[in-house]
Structures are given as structure tokens and as C-alpha cells.
Amino acid sequence: MSNTLNATLRALLEAITEFLPVSSTGHLFFFATFFPFTDFGESTEDFEDLFDIFIQSGAILSVIFLYYKKLSGELFAGIQFLAGDKSKKEGFQFVLSIIIGSFPIMMIGFLLRKQLDGIKSGEPLLYILGLAWFLGGIGILIQEWYFAKRIVDHVEDSGTAPLTIRQSIVVGFVQCVALIPGVSRSLATIVAGRSMGLSRKKAAEYSFFLAVPVLVAAGLYKLYKHWAILDGEKIWILVYGSVISFILCIFVIKWFLTYIRRHSFSIFGYYRILLGFLVLIYALYLK
Description:
It is built from 13 helices and no strands.
């Protein structure tokens, strides 16, 4: 398989799975175990590490593109509040909720970076992925069953207030579980948000917004770490993959929000359980 085709398929996987509660990183890691990049010599492993994180920048650009008006408006309102305009308190609270919700995973991810970097090439990777997918799927189904009668999902746009500090802290720390490959950052934030009474739409959108600082920080760290291996071909592949991810993520986000207005997250739970089961069977008996 050529590296361009490899990058195309990975970008497709990234776009389809980034904002769904199924773990984009898990899918990319699993794909790479069978179809690694080729012809990069000793820098192949480092480029694998960089590419799978960096193409998430395309996904982030899609969030900024779709929510530019809201994000820029809330950021400007937050600045106005700090400048003394107390009527802009909600804008400041929105920005604060993103900062608080993003901080734990960035801090813990940085502190555990060596251990996390070793997981992808480690022997237990398939077992970790399979178990995370399987248990995460069960978690989604339990959450949907338990909270279905306690959250008013049909009034999707009735509440526009930002998350409280307490809610942001809870979601932020729950999000840290997603440092385990296969768990899914979207799953962790959506389940945490739903558990505190957020509608499916609001929980999903807050997950989108949290992705911006988290994935930007991760991408910049990997770029800094592997800067020395970059050349013309590798830069082209990074940009190419990010562009595909950006374009497709726009459609995936729109579809996802439309889907959850009428349906629960259960389908993603069933998908995770099936995928996790198959991966565990492969790791235990077929590898």
C-alpha cells in the first residue's frame, strides 16, 4: 500500500470516528498494526506517532469552521467581561468551562507522556483496545438505559447556559480516562455530561469544544517532538491527511447532531461491543 493511500484511509478513519464515541485513536492504532507506513526507514515509528495525532488538527479546524460565530462571540464576550462589562458573564463562564475542562487531560497526559507513547508499540495494545471498546460499549448502553427517563432530550435547544465550574471539573477529570487507547475522549465527555443532566446535543457540542484546546496541544507537542524527522514528503502527507479530515469532519459533525436529535447513543454502544469482542478474539486466538 502506498503511503498516500495509507494516509487517505487513516484520514477517513479519523474523520468518521473523531467526534463519535468510538475512539478515533483506537481505530488508528488498530489500523496501523496491520498497515504501517513504509519506506521511511528508522523514522517510520516516529512518523506513525506524529501522523495519527497531527491529522486531528483537521478535525479541530472543522469545529472552528462550523462554530466560528459562537466560539469567537463567546471569546470576545469573555474578554469584555474581564474588561468590566458584567453583562458578558455567560461568555466568560463558557471560556472558563473550556479551560477547566481541558486542563486535567493536558496535565495528566503530559505527565504520563512516556508511558502513553509506549502503549502503541507495546504487546498488550490489542488487548487494551478490545477491552476498552467492549467495556465502553456496555457503559454507553447502561447510561442510555439509566438516564433515559431523567434527561429531557427532546428539548434540545432550551438551555444555552454554559457548564458550571463543578460540571466542567467533573467532565475534565472523566475525560482523562480517554488517555487509555480505545476509551474515546468523546465517549468520556458525553457520558459525563449526560450523567449531570445535559441533553445529548449539549453534551456532544461541549465535547466538540473541549477537543479544540486538547487536540491542538497534543498535535503541537507531537510536532515539536518529531520535528527533526520531517521532510518534504512527510509534510505533504501530514497536510494531505489533515485536509481530508477537515472536509469530511464537517459532514460527520452535521450528521451526528442530526442523528442524536432523534436517536440515542445505543448504536455506538452495540458497535463498540461487537468491535471489542472481535478484537479480543483476534488477540487471544488468531494473532
